[in-house]
């Protein structure tokens, strides 16, 4: 990669990180291109040259956010930690993300997710779901997930959960309950087993 390409890549990342920081703090609609340019230390023209429009930049920021979050999650899922520690860290990371995220950004993100966005669906189907199934298989091997529960039942449960989370009347209430919902997802209403 030559110097020009490296500088362009660094500016792109700076724009994406700056936009993500502002979107998470204030919501997508309340942030202007001028504010993103100041945060990223670039001109507004640079943003338009790289991304074309705020809508295209928003799409790229959402992809950037998903990939960044996924890299951290995948690192946890492939670690040597025992199953309960992985679940605990997943729950903690969900709560931490919820605490850092502006409700407007969350709702705008979920609206995009609810539209059946091809990137998000492809990501969920090809990356997230297979890793979750590996996690549940690991939990079965370690004795933390009931081995009599079929993967088909787990998949159906995840699908029901996912479809409900895409409904506006659900996701508009979800952010403050993220930690509890995640615990319910993994442990059910009986709570953590010893």
TrEMBL record:
Limits of the HTH tetR-type domain: 9-69
Pfam families reported in the protein's UniProt record: TetR_N
Native species: Virgibacillus necropolis
DNA-binding region: 32-51
Superkingdom to which the source organism belongs: Bacteria
Record keywords: DNA-binding, Repressor
The protein's name in its UniProt record: TetR family transcriptional regulator
Listed GO MF terms: DNA binding
């Amino acid at each position: 990669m030559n110097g020009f390409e490296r500088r362009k890549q660094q500016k792109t990342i700076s724009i994406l990180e700056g936009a993500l920081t502002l979107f998470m703090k204030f919501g997508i609609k309340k942030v202007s291109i001028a504010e993103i340019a100041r945060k990223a230390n670039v001109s507004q023209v640079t943003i338009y040259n790289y991304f074309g429009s705020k809508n295209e930049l928003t799409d790229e920021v959402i992809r950037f956010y998903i990939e960044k979050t996924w890299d951290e999650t995948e690192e946890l899922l492939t670690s040597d930690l025992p199953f309960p520690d992985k679940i605990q860290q997943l729950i903690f990371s969900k709560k931490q993300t919820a605490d850092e995220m502006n409700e407007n950004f969350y709702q705008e993100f979920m609206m995009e997710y609810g539209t059946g966005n091809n990137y998000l669906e492809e990501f969920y189907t090809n990356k997230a779901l297979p890793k979750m199934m590996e996690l549940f298989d690991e939990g079965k091997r370690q004795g933390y997930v009931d081995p009599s529960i079929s993967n088909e039942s787990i998949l159906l449960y995840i699908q029901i959960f996912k479809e409900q989370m895409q409904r506006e009347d659900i996701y508009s209430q979800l952010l403050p309950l993220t930690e509890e919902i995640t615990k319910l997802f993994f442990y059910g209403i009986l709570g953590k087993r010893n």
